[in-house]
Automatic annotation (TrEMBL):
Belongs to the class-I aminoacyl-tRNA synthetase family. Residues 185-225 are annotated as: Disordered. Residues 694-772 form the tRNA synthetases class I (E and Q) anti-codon binding domain. PROSITE patterns: AA_TRNA_LIGASE_I. The keyword Lipid biosynthesis does not apply. Pfam families: tRNA-synt_1c, tRNA-synt_1c_C, tRNA-synt_1c_C2, tRNA_synt_1c_R1, tRNA_synt_1c_R2. Keywords: Aminoacyl-tRNA synthetase, ATP-binding, Ligase, Nucleotide-binding, Protein biosynthesis. Residues 200-212 have a biased composition (Basic and acidic residues). This is glutamine--tRNA ligase. Residues 272-577 form the Glutamyl/glutaminyl-tRNA synthetase class Ib catalytic domain. It catalyses: tRNA(Gln) + L-glutamine + ATP = L-glutaminyl-tRNA(Gln) + AMP + diphosphate. It comes from Eruca vesicaria subsp. sativa (Garden rocket).
Length: 797
């Protein structure tokens, strides 16, 4: 209910109407005593208490509502406004930027006029010409998106050429040009945008799908060594306009720190870079988070600064202690050391106090619309019926929300932004909602929780973050990010968005990952087929390889491309080739009896751990037994030889790696006369034979003693399609049923019996493998990390 009117209220409304405010704005203003006092003082100081032109009045209203701190030179500013030398919101913003960035005693009138565009006349013809040019440059996009085109971006393009143009006139020309180009709105223009289901109708051909994948050449050494963080400004440069928020009424909010705010920030930080890595603890981290870590922790490390590990724990229903523990552990495994570990919930009291202040300033209100009603009103760009309720009423209701006096779903706190804006992230976003759920970190103290849109930017400011870095899908939220900080007069970090990491043949949506884990399509969050960091680690991938891969991607804003998984595999091989010792394992053993070797004779041969091993370095070799019974892989034997075949066949010789040439002399079949039971061969002790084929092998270490038996798990791509997300609801049908093959009875050389979980090896001719956590005494389990073949640079980009 509205507060009772008194004579002072009526006088204030009359005064505000005299400067050209509409009746609704005037009556809304008197509900906020602070704004009423500010606007009254501004009107009197400007000498227009008897009324003025509406344009002048709107500028004075902006001074009273958006710029609370009165500069020393305010009388000078008012003179320029009432004499129409400063006549647009852009000029007014420039004036306050000038005051904020210059010491009062250094005020120079000529520099001030130049900075504010005083005397610059922008004609309607000038505006029309620039609008024509902007439409011509963006015609293709406008024709594709029609009336869903972001008019704010078009306004921004015009403002770059004509910074002092009246935004209302610019918007009129843009609307007029839009109508000329597109005509009347069609039924399709009024429909809610589809969620990209067009591609489901006709699957892309293989050639078309390949076009989606980024054909990036292997990064040069120069590119890899280049400093990827050089694009970011220094903390002391944080005075620039961060973003322009184009309001539906044609006004423009330019968000930047003034000198006083920045100096206060620099005093706290000592001028150091402060970043944050802010994962939500609702699942395990994936390789996309590795890129975020590289950006956040890497920038801080490169500049000698600090990086917080901050848990974005605003949703108590989705968060688990398991995820919190995992995140901290995996961050350390990736080689990063947080300056400090914090939680958004650490700031719940400060955030609540800021929400109260936002209400007091007239920038937030308690709303009773349910989720469906909010969605419908947003689609129609309609204000909530509760939007203009008195400030005191919202303060009381918000306190009742906090005390648990209102049912869940019956009220939210919403920011009073701009429901008619072209950016949907300015549609009065929800700041707080009621959830009667205990919090994993904060306990049961709170039953209202801030949203990401309210908490993220405010905690960035509270922690004095210098660089708030995130992926490009958050770019449209930049307007609300800075709107909120501006509305609360808080320090503003520098925000920069970079392209997210998209890799072929996998999914990285936490929702989809959670689904396939929960529904047991994979064996947990650390399944080696997943590109979760836990899965990659279990598979045998090193953090060094992951960071090298991410660094090779660079920190760019190019988006929409898929990186072929072979590029990741290239970096994995590069690392393991240098760090994984060589050894031999036979996956599908075929018995070979060396008939010309005594049954009780066992020779100890030297095998190389490293391909470039020096003969005078004993540590570079290991011993392998060579006896009457050896085993080769079934795939290395054929009954019929051919010219391009280098394996063993009847009457043919091959070289056993690190051992002797052998020649097949006989083949023994099982009772079905098809299955080969064993092969008989003779070895050449003098090594006079020089066969082309070289095979890996494993021998009995003593007569009748079976070699070490191990389990080997062979992994392939989890999804058949390069981009399973394109299949929309059918994405689960794309899971590769052969993505995991278990070989239970492989044979290994004796040295592997001492391997422990996490050890990595190259199994010669097979690939790189790591010991899995499922290993037990007497039965080791190996995961294939990656094959030996490198398709990167050979068409697999």
């Amino acid at each position: 209910m509205a507060p009772p009117k008194d004579d002072n209220s009526e006088e204030s409304v009359k005064l505000f109407l005299s400067i050209g405010l509409d009746e609704k704005t005037a009556k809304t203003t008197i509900n906020n005593p602070k704004v009423t006092a500010n606007l009254t003082a501004v009107i009197n100081e400007a000498g227009v208490s008897n009324g003025c032109d509406r344009t002048i009045g709107n500028l004075l209203y902006t001074v009273a509502t958006k710029y609370h701190n009165a500069p020393v030179h305010r009388p000078t500013l008012f003179n320029y406004i009432v004499t129409a030398q400063i006549k647009t919101p852009a000029q007014l913003d420039a004036a306050f930027s000038f005051f904020g960035n210059n010491n009062p005693e250094d005020f120079n009138l000529n520099e001030f006029e130049e900075a504010c565009g005083v005397g610059v006349e922008v004609s309607a013809e000038d505006i029309e010409n620039v609008v024509e040019k902007v439409f011509e440059e963006n015609k293709k996009t406008i024709l594709e998106q029609r009336y869903r085109t972001n008019a704010g971006l078009l306004l921004g393009h015009v403002r770059k050429s004509l910074p002092w143009a009246d935004p209302k006139i610019v918007k009129d020309f843009i609307d007029k040009k839009m109508y000329e180009l597109l005509g009347e709105k069609t039924a399709a223009d009024h429909e809610k945008p589809a969620k990209k289901k067009e591609k489901k109708e006709k699957p892309a051909k293989a050639e078309e799908k390949k076009a989606v994948v980024e054909a990036t050449p292997e990064p040069s050494e120069e590119e890899l060594n280049m400093n990827p963080y050089s694009i970011f400004p220094q903390p002391e440069q944080n005075l620039m306009v961060h973003t322009e928020v184009f309001y539906s009424d044609g006004s423009v909010l330019r968000c930047n720190n003034n000198r006083e705010v920045l100096d206060k920030h620099l005093k706290v930080t000592g001028g150091k870079v402060y970043t944050r890595f802010p994962p939500e603890p609702n699942g395990y981290l994936h390789i996309g988070h590795a890129k975020a870590m590289f950006v956040d922790f890497g920038l801080a490390k490169e500049r000698g600064g600090c990086c917080y590990l901050r848990y974005d724990d605003t949703n108590p229903e989705a968060e688990k202690k398991e995820y919190i523990n995992h995140i901290e552990e995996i961050v350390n495994w990736m080689g990063w050391a947080p300056f400090k570990i914090t939680y958004t919930s650490d700031y719940f009291q400060e955030l609540y106090d800021l929400a109260v202040e936002l209400i007091r300033r007239g920038h937030a209100y308690v709303d009773h619309q349910n989720a469906d009603e909010i969605t419908k009103y947003r689609e129609k760009k309609m204000n909530s019926p509760w939007r203009d309720r008195p400030i005191e009423e919202s303060l009381r209701l918000f306190e009742e929300m906090r005390r648990g006096m209102i049912e869940e779903g019956k009220a939210t706190l919403r920011m009073k932004q701009d429901m008619q804006n072209d950016n949907c992230n300015m549609y009065d976003l929800i700041a707080y909602r009621i959830k009667f759920t205990p919090h994993p970190h904060a306990g049961d103290k709170w039953c209202i929780y801030p949203t990401y849109d309210f908490a993220h930017c405010t905690v960035d400011s509270l922690e004095n973050i210098t660089h708030s870095l995130c992926t490009l899908e958050f770019e449209t939220r930049r307007a609300s990010y800075y709107w909120l900080l501006h509305s609360l007069d808080l320090y503003m970090p520098y925000v920069w968005e970079y392209s997210r990491l998209n890799i072929t043949n996998t999914v990285m949506s936490k929702r989809k990952l959670n689904y396939i884990v929960t529904n047991k399509h994979v064996d947990g969050w650390d399944d080696p087929r997943l590109l979760t960091l836990a899965g990659l680690r279990r598979r045998g991938v090193t953090p060094t390889a992951i960071n090298a891969f991410v660094r090779g991607m660079g920190i760019t804003r190019s988006d929409g491309s898929m990186i072929h998984v072979s590029r990741l595999e290239h970096h994995i091989r590069e690392e393991l080739n240098k760090t994984a010792p060589r050894t031999m394992v036979v996956l599908n053993p075929l018995k070979v009896v060396i008939t010309n070797l005594e049954s009780d004779k066992v020779m100890e041969l030297d095998a190389k751990r490293w391909p470039d091993a020096q003969n005078d370095d004993p540590s570079a070799f290991y011993k392998v037994p060579f006896s009457r019974v050896v085993y080769i892989d079934q795939s290395d034997f054929r009954m019929k030889d051919s010219k391009d075949y280098y394996g063993l066949a009847p009457g043919k010789s091959v070289l056993l790696r690190y051992g002797f040439p052998i020649k097949c002399t006989n083949v023994v079949f099982a009772d079905d006369n098809e299955t080969i039971r064993e092969i008989h061969a003779e070895y050449d002790p003098e090594k006079k034979t020089k066969p082309k084929g070289v095979l890996h092998w494993v021998a009995e270490s003593s007569t009748g003693k079976e070699p070490i038996k191990v389990e080997v798990r062979l992994f392939e791509k989890l999804f058949n399609s390069e981009n399973p997300a394109e299949l929309n609801d059918a994405w689960l049908t794309d899971i590769n049923p052969n993505s995991k093959v278990v070989v239970s009875d492989a044979y290994a050389v004796p040295i592997l019996k001492d391997a422990v979980v996490g050890d990595r090896f190259q199994f010669e001719r097979l690939g790189y493998f790591a010991v899995d956590k499922d290993s037990e005494p007497g039965k080791l389990v190996f995961n294939r990390t990656v094959t030996l073949r490198d398709s990167y640079g050979k068409g697999g980009k």
